Fold this sequence. Notes:
- By secondary structure, the protein is α/β, with parallel strands linked by helices.
- It has helices at 14-25, 77-85, 114-124, 142-159, 212-216, 224-229, 248-264; strands at 2-6, 29-35, 57-59, 69-73, 95-102, 129-134, 165-169, 180-183, 192-199, 202-209, 232-239, 242-243.
- Helix content is 29%, strand content 25%.
- The longest helix has 18 residues, at 142-159.
- It is globular, with a radius of gyration of 18 Å.
Amino acid sequence: MRILLTNDDGIDAPGLAALARRLHEDGHDLLVAAPAGDVSGSGTSLGTTADGAVILVRKAGIPSLPDVAAYAVEAPPAFIALAACTGALGEPPGFVISGVNPGHNTGRTLLHSSTVGAAIAAASCGRPAMAVSCGAAPGGRFDTAAEVAAAALVLFHEHLPRSAVLNVNVPDLGVAEILSVRRARLGRLGSFSMTFEPVLGGLRMRHRPATERQLREQPHRDGDSALVAAGHVTLTALAGGIEDPALTGAVDELAAGVAHRLAAHVPARARG
């Protein structure tokens, strides 16, 4: 299957490389196209809609994967997803994966995530898509997240419709340490919140990580931010940026299948 890999952290991001290497192992036909630099927080922005604008594109590379086509694009990932799906970067992909993002995209704040925005843009072109995130540096487990993404990709079409967008959040644990793979609703709180304070000449934005107590005391214990903080992989089917209740049963089945595939990769001694 031809797959577009993109992200919002830039072509040189380690999460993108980890995901590319893992999917290359499975023999997928990969097209890697990512922003030239970090454009986090741009949501589904295209960067520009000016008629006649020229968006710069240059050839790039993924370490240890010299045979994989890779491009750095001076645009947000939603633009890249639209361009690739319409054939502007060669043969259009049949599937789009955005990530692995360093920082969980959970709760209602994912509406601003350009990792998720790329997947939503792909779905608008009729392509199934997945957004994948783990924790931020230095503890982010890109290897585990890539393994989860590879498992979910194999089972995606078996359980979800072609138009689905799947948001995947992976705890910073080894595969053998993951407690479960769960369908999750969007939490009331995300993994972090933003605050704004007036300063001379403008506003200063601050990121504030959610505390364990805040996550634990959310009204819904099945929220994605609380579950991933507790050590579970969370899967959320999205429609227009919020969870799609019509796919509840399908995501439950997908979660069980992913958990089974992950368990098969864990040596018996690691399972205790």
